[in-house]
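Training component of the fellowship. As part of building independent skills, the fellow (R.M.) carried out the full modelling exercise for a liganded target. The chosen ligand was aspartic acid. The inputs are recorded below so that the supervisory panel can assess the work.
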Amino acid sequence: MKVFKFGGASVKDAEAIKNVGSILLQFEQEPLLVVVSAIGKTTNKLEECLTYLLGQDQLKYDHSVHALRDFHIDIAGALFHDHHGKVFRFIDDIFEQLKNKFDKPRAEQHSFEYDQLVSLGEVLSSFIINEYVLELGLKSEWLDARRLIRTDHHYQEANINWEKSEALITALLESTVEQTNTFITQGFIGHTAEGFSTTLGREGSDYSAAIFAYCTNATEVTIWKDVPGMLNADPKYFDNTTLLSKISYREAIELAYFGASVIHPKTIKPLQNKKIPLYVKSFIAPEEAGTTIQSEGGNDHLIPSFIVKKNQVLITISSLDFSFINEDALAKIFEVFYTTRIKINLMQNSALNFSVLVDGDKVHMDTLIKHLNPTFTCKYNEGVELVTIRHYNQATVVQMTANREVLLEQRSRQTARFVIR
Ligand code: ASP
Ligand code: MG
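Fellow's submitted model of the complex:
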């Protein structure tokens, strides 16, 4: 079995979905499990709906739900001739459920409501795509990840129950009819033992592909992207980029962890554990080789990689009474970050200060300050950038930091990181 993953950009409209169909047709003869993300920016739109739902703004809620329904209906309209068929009923059913949510009682836990609502984006996209490839003549079957991927109750960032998921997936694949060669399912979502939907964290569809690959002992995974593979820098910010044609799992996980947005950092571990190679390829030029990520990585160091994370906030936390930032203080600070679910991109300490860097769009400073009070105070700089250079040398450091103010820097043998503005 091969596992393919198509992200939101690769299914962003009817044309893109047709392109996915043409790629899948080329693999008709092989058993294939296809993981798809929600269409285009649907997840963001669903998050908006949730804000209106929780804020009890019926007008805006209805309006957003309706716009998203029309968006999906229009795409289906461009893919299918029979406008009263199964797909249209499916889409209407989901949006009817969404509309009715407004009058239903809500759980106190926002992250629970988030997962029940935002998971529907992938349900919609996978159903539409499955029906489309059936029309193309593929013997395809729609799989519901909300019955296959078992997680705990950590809503919005659920943890996988590997044994249970493996058992559920194996049992289902064994029971499917022999002619089925293609399975289409959702990225990003799973379910609890009680059957509630969970999500695995934003951009989590890559991780889903790795989970399915692990549980089916797949021979390989391909992530189809709008770039030629993993590049040594983001082409949005750099003119001259180089394709990393072969890198190790270790290098890939470091790059992803430091913020290379091409693959979700959790994707690598399950693949590494079963030595399943990962290919990152272009859905625009599917015949090109792209990037291969596997065990061997003797050449990882040959090409320096650059990762820029914009819109960062540098927060400096200090104790009020001039006491040290010791293990006790750090434990208290980490507890705050853990409970407020704010992820730390970089940290550094001195005798009296502990500095952390976090994503500007994910941190609510007033809330954080409230949690740190009264033991700690904090100062912060907004709008700074984090630059990471893997396999740096003096020239690349100069290139990235020239004429910029460096607020903080860290170097290990392989990696140099700078907080700059
Ligand atoms: N649709 C989800 C998101 O946008 C998951 C994914 O695309 O990987 O975050
Ligand atoms: Mg995505």
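The panel noted the following from the submitted structure. The chain has a mean pLDDT of 95. The pocket of aspartic acid (ligand 1) is lined by residues 7-8, 37-38, 43, 121, 187-188, 202-205 (CB under 6 Å).
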